[in-house]
Amino acid sequence: METEKKPILEMRGITKRFPGVVANDHVDLELFPGEVLALLGENGAGKSSLMNVLAGLYRPDEGAIFIRGEKVQIDSPRDARNLGIGMVHQNFMVVDTMTVAENIILGLTEVSMIPDMGKISDRIREISSHYNLKVDPSAYIWQLGVGEQQRVEILKQIYRGAEILILDEPTAVLTPQESEELNNILRQMTSEGKAAIFITHKMEEVIAFSDWVRVLQHGKLVTVKRTSETNPQELARLMVGREVLFRIDKAPAEPKDVILEVENVDANDEKGMPALKGFSLQVRQGEIVGIAGVAGNGQRELTEVITGLHPVLNGSIKINGKDMTNRSPLAIIRSGVSHIPSDRIAMGVVGDMSVANNLVMKGYRRKPITHGGLLDPRRILDFARRMIDSFKIATPTPDTHVKFLSGGNIQKTILAREIDSCGGVLVAAYPSRGLDVGATEAVRNEMVRQRDKGSGVLLVSEDLDELLSVADRIVVMFEGQSMGELSSADAEVEMLGLMMSGVSKKKAEKEYYGSDHATGV
Ligand SMILES: Nc1ncnc2c1ncn2[C@@H]1O[C@H](COP(=O)(O)OP(=O)(O)O)[C@@H](O)[C@H]1O
Ligand SMILES: [Mg+2]
Question: How far apart are CA 409 and CA 420, in angstroms?
């Protein structure tokens, strides 16, 4: 029985301090062989810090760690690896120009001077077929999607002998199919007596993947529960400290004039392959148009051609009736377009600048922040404090450099800035990706608020629940083309799913409703 099981890992009284913040405050953790522990908490609650302590990246200020009952000292990632601890990081790093196999052995000191790539590849194939992980050892990383890159990261940890696998928000970027695959890997691992710690904001995954749940709040452990004895509502409440609704209250849209018009646009991706093929779309003032699709079907290019970050080959983009095709990002910002990019770390913030300055990076052209043409530091600080407060950005001070914030709080900084500065059009790519439940709710409500103030919102998301609850209409993208659109009031998930796999609306309707069904949006 479970009660006789001895923990494979125990962390006792772990405390980790950073200047101005206690990331972990006497945290206890137990992990049993053959089990998955879900570690939950709001952005900035201290989850990554605790795992970084375990992985040998951070030295704890207090506390002790035991592996199979024996006290251990973990001073480096190598110590952690030798103890069978493997971590897939929140912003994982793989080297683009290397192959899968090269990435997997990268940094392994055990490898002889001239590694036998043939043997290594064989071993990788063996592991991947055992875990049903489809990975080609000779593929280059740049050829892989994010989900596949993550598979490589997991494979790497297994290759290195991980008995305790830590996954820090692994499914923030995965499609539903990839997340299912991840569940299978975890099942396979745990059936062999290995164990995993899993950090996620997705409640369905907590329920489906884990055996135990631990919740952190402001660095402290607040709850330990058996997954079978809790539910998403309770967990959300424990994390956020209040009831979370999981739904949006919104009135029907009252669309006015067209504010964004994409007409017959062709564009290539970074490798020169067609990414948008004659794509057209209209967004009106006072409506939210959702874009559904499996990642990599041109969504990124769509948001980037609109915001001037990617060239348009054919076709046109009009904002407020004015032709803005291939204009500079600055000209497009000035015409009233705000952008929440999908790659927030690279495009959204300057890590070496303070939170306050990052928050005003776009707003500074407006009146209250400048004073006689000069930036007014007092007003910047006031503005920053207001944003930090309303978006609950966890930062020790407004002057803290953004690079010291947790991933979720960096996102909130960009969201606060872009949503607040929206001047008519908001282009939001995966706005709730990686955000905790409380922040997700805030961001969704904020998008609806912008709509009700008369903005046109384009919402790209992989989360169908998000699209169905936030968007007014949903356009499905597949291989750079539109498969048709549905009004979200009567869109069925199965229909969307069919269209996302490349079935046109007409055919999908036939398949789903039978031949004599007629609808119109
Ligand atoms: N290297 C660091 N330097 C300074 N502060 C940090 C560092 N890493 C994390 N923190 C701070 O510790 C707190 C917890 O962060 P983190 O563990 O990343 O939270 P979570 O993963 O739960 O979102 C945050 O306030 C964050 O700003
Ligand atoms: Mg984190």
Answer: 16
